Amino acid sequence: MKAKLIKVSASLLLTLTSLQLHAKTDDWQYLLDNNLSQWEVWMGIPHSSVKGLPDNTFTASNLNQHGTPTNALGLNNDPKNVVSVQQINGEPVLSITGEIYAGLTTLKQYENYHLSLLVKWGDKKWAPRLKAKKDSGLLFHCQGPHGAFWKVWKACHELQIQETDFGDYIPLSGPQADFKGELKNDKMTYQPNGKNLVPAKGYIHAAYEPDFENGKWNRVELFTLNDKAVFVVNDYVVMVIENSKDKDDNPLTQGQLQLQSEGAEVYYKDIKLRPINQWPEDIKRLANFAN
């Protein structure tokens, strides 16, 4: 496996070739089928603008403040068919309308793995994000009950999937991690060549923004091993987090996966995972772990 060196401004930007990373191998576990048999869905509180809901459904105009998890539509209760699977060109494609905030959650927990998926945007957006960027997310090391964050998602780490912001990092509802970063243009940003780890507090921006224009499939990959994780977007290493811990400072190295419905139409396919017990050489070199 070779790494390509591409000069961007005054720095060297490292990318991966994907030929060997995505070769057909027997150790991939494919997570998507027509029946979503490996997932469950937790539906949050619908926005007050949503039409066609069952009578007496609780709605709110401010989805991150109003209501409690018990006001949510709840487990596997999807009256607007927000989450579904379509067969397109002979393969299952996950369709998420985004009309109601929701989390599609794996039934199993995973530890020490390479996860790969393809994602692209649809056209629709919904309140309260009609004027915001299209947004979704890959949540990992998810723990505890549904609804810990905004009455929808579990406590977790987030690999952000948002227009022009693929691979940003957000800790949700308790988990913690460190990263090599600094304040850059008033944003906390991952610095691949940084020397010191700092706590990741709040929203952390990726080193690069290599996502494609709307309508094209993007390859998003997550490598996790022990207390570290590496985010790769379209073959660019864009984020590295280390010293993953839960809210009680215990090592956080495993958990469920979630895909977000968050106000935008989005599609996922080729969702697959395989175990790893050591870092692939290119990943280890490009990640340049601090410890």
Written overview of the protein:
- With 291 residues, the chain is mainly β.
- The protein contains one helix and 21 strands.
- Strands 3, 6, 7, 10, 14, 15, 16, 17, 18, 19 and 21 form an eleven-stranded antiparallel sheet that branches. Strands 4, 5, 8, 9, 11, 12, 13 and 20 form an eight-stranded antiparallel sheet that branches.
- A hairpin with a 2-residue loop joins β1 (3-8) and β2 (11-16).
- The longest helix is centred in the C-terminal third of the chain and has 7 residues, at 281-287.
- The chain starts with a strand and ends with a helix.
Largest sheet: 11 strands, antiparallel
> What is the H level of CATH, i.e. the homologous superfamily?
Exo-inulinase, domain 1
> What is the straight-line distance between the termini?
24 Å
Q: What is the CATH class designation?
A: Mainly Beta
SS summary, helix count:
1
Strand content: over 45%
In short:
With 291 residues, the protein is mainly β.
Throw out a few tags for this protein:
11-stranded antiparallel β-sheet, disordered N terminus, 291 residues, mainly beta
Q: In terms of topology, how is this protein built?
A:
Blueprint: E1 3-8, E2 11-16, E3 29-30, E4 39-43, E5 74-75, E6 83-88, E7 91-96, E8 102-106, E9 110-111, E10 113-125, E11 135-143, E12 155-162, E13 169-172, E14 176-184, E15 187-190, E16 197-199, E17 218-225, E18 228-233, E19 236-245, E20 254-261, E21 264-275, H1 281-287
Antiparallel strand pairs: 1-2, 3-21, 4-5, 4-8, 6-7, 7-21, 8-20, 9-20, 10-17, 10-21, 11-12, 11-20, 12-13, 14-15, 14-16, 14-19, 17-18, 18-19
